[in-house]
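Is this the right way to post structure tokens for a design question? Let me know if I should format differently. Anyway, here goes:
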């Protein structure tokens, strides 16, 4: 009974939002479709399948009935390896808006999107007893919100280094803005590098720290094993793997085992039920809705994730938010 009342309440809120905020949303969809149609005609952009399906998806957002039809009859028939989210296209403006809204969602205590990953990493930091500074590498680090939450919750006596790897200049802008209070108040030290390698990590491990250090570097994630040989204590990545092609996912599994003693993968899993709540809570923000839904379609199923258990990975599910952690101890 309580569940049905909860669903009814969500639907009511959903429709109220639609009535109160129609204009801005329609304008955003119109502008995104204009950008996608330009990209569709660009001979230099090769993935025309992704563009065509993105156009269909954003058109479906204009009407609830068509959107529901798209979810039920089209979404799960798409070629997920060829899908792209708005942040994957060469649209820095839409990527920036998505980063901003996603960061707002990650900061909220409900539903606690980053809670499982934050707790896992915090446990590792608190229990660390190795020589020198602990080094944790974040692949596709984005705004480094999980790092910010961890640092704010830990005793300043913990000496550790977060190394964020990201190619995106948009990510660096949002990262600096997200961490500016920690940096200006001397809670963390911040360092920006072109790249990291064994020599850099050795220097960081022996560096005398009076506060946690955050390093940002622009390495190619899939080529890190050419520069790093088992020097990190932990490599982790959040909502990153699903952006890769099938071949690159296999390559990532191989690379992370070579550069770290422990690997923590955090992402969502694919299921029909996990499409409902993101549709409701992201409906007013088309770029965020695209990121939420298309990413779910690119995510692995529980069956696929369970197959990793036979390959030495521990898999844990968080059904409340539709996420999982996949951990490898080398």
């Amino acid at each position: 009974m309580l569940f049905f009342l909860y669903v009814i309440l969500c639907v009511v809120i959903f429709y109220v939002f639609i009535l109160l905020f129609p204009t801005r949303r329609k304008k955003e969809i119109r502008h995104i479709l204009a950008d996608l149609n330009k990209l569709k005609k660009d001979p230099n952009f090769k993935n025309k399948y992704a563009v065509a399906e993105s156009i269909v998806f954003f058109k479906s957002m204009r009407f609830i009935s068509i959107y529901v039809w798209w979810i039920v009859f089209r979404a799960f028939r798409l070629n997920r390896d060829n899908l792209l989210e708005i942040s994957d296209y060469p649209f820095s403006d839409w990527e920036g808006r998505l980063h901003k809204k996603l960061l707002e969602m990650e900061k909220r205590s409900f539903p606690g999107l980053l809670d499982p990953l934050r707790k896992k990493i915090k446990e590792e930091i608190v229990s660390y007893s190795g020589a020198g500074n602990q080094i944790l590498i974040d692949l596709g680090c984005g705004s480094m919100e999980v790092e910010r939450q961890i640092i704010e919750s830990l005793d300043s006596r913990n000496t550790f280094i977060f190394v964020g790897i990201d190619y995106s200049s948009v990510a660096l802008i949002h990262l600096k803005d997200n961490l500016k209070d920690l940096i200006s108040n001397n809670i963390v030290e911040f360092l920006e590098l072109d790249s990291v390698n064994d020599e850099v990590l050795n220097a960081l491990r022996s560096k005398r720290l009076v506060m946690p250090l955050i390093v940002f570097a622009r390495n190619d994630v899939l080529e890190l094993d050419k520069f790093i040989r088992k020097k990190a204590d932990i490599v982790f990545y959040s909502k990153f793997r699903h952006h890769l092609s099938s071949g690159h996912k296999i390559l990532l599994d191989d690379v992370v085992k070579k550069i770290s003693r422990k690997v923590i993968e955090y992402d969502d899993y694919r299921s029909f039920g996990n499409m409902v709540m993101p549709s409701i809570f992201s409906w007013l923000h088309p770029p965020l809705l695209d990121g939420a839904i298309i990413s779910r379609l690119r995510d692995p199923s529980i069956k696929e994730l369970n197959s990793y258990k036979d390959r030495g990975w521990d898999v844990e599910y968080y059904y409340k938010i539709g996420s999982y952690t996949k951990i490898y101890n080398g």
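Format looks fine. Someone answered above. Worth noting: The chain has a mean pLDDT of 91. The longest strand covers residues 262-268.
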